[in-house]
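The following block was generated as part of the benchmark described in Methods. Ligand: threonylcarbamoyladenylate.
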Amino acid sequence: MSAHIGTDLALALQLLRAGEPVAIPTETVYGLAANAFDPDAVLKIFTIKQRPSFDPLIVHIGKSEDVHRVAKELPPGAERLMAAFWPGPLTLVLPKKMEVPDIVTSGLDTVAVRMPAHPLTLELLSLLEFPLAAPSANPFGYVSPTTAQHVADQLGDRIPYILDGGACEVGVESTIVGWEAGQWTMYRPGGIAVEAIEACLGMRLRRGGAQAEGTAQAAPGMLESHYAPRKPVHVGNVEDMLSAHNGERVAVISFRTPYPPHRCEVLSASGELHEAARNLFAALRTLDTSDCELILAEHFPEEGIGRAINDRLRRAAAAR
Ligand code: TXA
Ligand code: MG
């Protein structure tokens, strides 16, 4: 079985209805999707990704009202967040309905839900009778895919179809927040700035909840090495790292300036954090397949989507 890439919605519908997984575009990264109400279909996602069963999936819905198909109730403020940020890169962790299979939520009594902002996938969802459970469409632990070709490069021989929606506009995964101990809590920085969520709720987000990404059901730190290329990654001051690794075959990921004569992926020459986020994962993939031995990445401004960039680079660096 080798994957076809295309924009054939009818084929995607047919496969999903038959309980087969399909890779789908979202504004953040590509997802590997299956019928969220069909445990056998969802199991295929875990097998293809070689994802451990303790790492729960995000359920994707096509309209806000569908949140009630998977969530038992909405905590205070949830509707305000949905109105402000859906469709978009914000995932809400909500009390789950019994109908959501345990395999989707790793047996938790909560379910992660979002409405993605991608026209093709929204159209797909509007035609389907069920929501789609979808993690990022990469082998477990590797960098998330931001083009259909990225998906094909790694999972092409394991999935029947990749719906091609072009390059992802946001480029890093959704921000994940959940209601925990009577407070909105931050689980993963992502496409929506923490600052914007706090402004919307009119209160500070609680940090590092019990279910922060990587600690959901696993031993603490277990998923620390996520979003990781095969090559070692170091994060810090580029000039200092270049001196420390003088003579080695290094490549650099920088925000706005190149570091000649070294190979360098400049993520945004104009210094725009959203553009940098959009280019981050493709740069990691490019350097991972280049002939460098070591990837040196700059620390990005810790604000807005810059927090998500730093988070992904830190996790990539934690891999060794
Ligand atoms: O932007 C995104 O979020 C992308 C696109 C495809 O939507 N998806 C994505 O999925 O990044 P994935 O599987 O790579 O990350 C999902 C993460 C899990 O690792 C877990 O940390 C968190 O969502 N999660 C899911 N369900 C949860 C729950 N019930 N409680 C806490 N965290 C949960
Ligand atoms: Mg992932």
